[in-house]
């Protein structure tokens, strides 16, 4: 029997909180739980218990003492080595993710593609018209290796690179969005819906910080992904439509990597993904380690400014050194 991963997360959350009730969540319709009753020794529970060992599970009714310094709409930090919640606030609210969306796009590219494939930049990718949209500056007809495109996409957060990746994999942004939503179902990211590969605003493009944790947990298993997010700056080499060589340098948007912010003592920031739009506020997903060798994922959505975002992220990272 095939089980939905989202079901397993919720079952595991009940199990880990010691609930003795036979009431279990077994289906979702547009984010609404439907209650059913199953036997406590059933295969569903056994499967969920095993599945939970690989994840940090936040029960739906989980509450920790609110940190008054954490004013962003949603935040979390997990010890992913021991699968422990260090802090979690509002992890299941649907919010706009801005360029944190690029984690989802990158996961699909890393899973499905040969990174040596050549990508040709389309007219659509080269001509984003949305005001304020960050672009790498690729021009129609440019040809670039997918690996270099992915570096540019994650490090610099160029939205034109995102469209090029989506079209290369699926033929169109719309078809790629369907693939993103299918991947969300596979990972149990039940409160997400994506309509584009980059995170430029759309009212129907949303996720939760817990769902992003599920995507990011998969991404950090990939060495190439880790190499990319740990890079301070990247020089892309590619060819124009006329066959002439081009280069472009893309600095990281991660302030910890470029020295604009300092992590707490005994904490090493590996990397992550920033995101900012007017409606999403300032967002950040981060992977870090402490001096004891433990790995951590921390996420903040909807901080009021970039300075507030990184100040609050540093606060979360202090939980590692306690």
TrEMBL record:
InterPro entries: Beta-lactam/transpept-like, Peptidase_S11, Peptidase_S11_N. Substrate binds at residue 273. Coiled coil: none annotated. Residues 1-25 form the signal peptide. The keyword Disulfide bond does not apply. The keyword Cell wall biogenesis/degradation applies. It holds the Pfam family Peptidase_S11. Keywords: Carboxypeptidase, Cell shape, Cell wall biogenesis/degradation, Hydrolase, Peptidoglycan synthesis, Protease, Signal. One of its GO terms (biological process) is regulation of cell shape. This is D-alanyl-D-alanine carboxypeptidase. It comes from Velocimicrobium porci.
């Amino acid at each position: 029997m095939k089980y939905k991963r989202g079901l397993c997360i919720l079952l595991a959350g009940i199990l880990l909180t010691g609930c003795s009730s036979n009431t279990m969540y077994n289906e979702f319709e547009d984010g609404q739980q439907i209650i059913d009753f199953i036997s406590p020794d059933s295969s569903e529970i056994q499967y969920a218990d095993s599945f939970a060992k690989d994840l940090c599970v936040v029960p739906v009714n989980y509450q920790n003492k609110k940190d008054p310094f954490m004013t962003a709409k949603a935040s979390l930090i997990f010890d992913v080595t021991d699968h422990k919640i260090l802090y979690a606030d509002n992890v299941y609210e649907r919010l706009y993710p801005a360029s944190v969306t690029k984690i989802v796009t990158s996961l699909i590219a890393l899973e499905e593609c040969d990174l040596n494939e050549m990508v040709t930049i389309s007219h659509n990718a080269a001509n984003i018209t949305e005001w304020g949209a960050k672009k790498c500056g690729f021009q129609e007809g440019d040809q670039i290796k997918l690996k270099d495109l992915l570096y540019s996409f994650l490090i610099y957060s160029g939205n034109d690179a995102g469209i090029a990746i989506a079209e290369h994999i699926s033929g169109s942004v719309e078809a790629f969005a369907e693939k993103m939503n299918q991947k969300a179902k596979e990972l149990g990211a039940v409160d997400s819906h994506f309509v584009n590969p980059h995170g430029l605003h759309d009212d129907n493009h949303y996720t939760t910080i817990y769902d992003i944790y599920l995507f990011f947990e998969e991404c950090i298993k990939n060495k190439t992904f880790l190499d990319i997010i740990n890079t301070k700056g990247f020089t892309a080499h590619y060819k124009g439509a006329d066959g002439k060589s081009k280069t472009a340098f893309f600095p990281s948007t991660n302030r910890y990597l470029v020295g604009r912010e300092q992590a707490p003592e005994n904490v090493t920031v590996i990397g992550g993904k920033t995101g900012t739009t007017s409606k999403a506020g300032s967002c950040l997903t981060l992977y870090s380690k402490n001096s004891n060798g433990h790995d951590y994922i921390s996420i903040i959505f909807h901080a009021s400014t970039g300075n507030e975002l990184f100040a609050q992220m540093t606060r979360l990272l202090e939980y590692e050194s306690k």
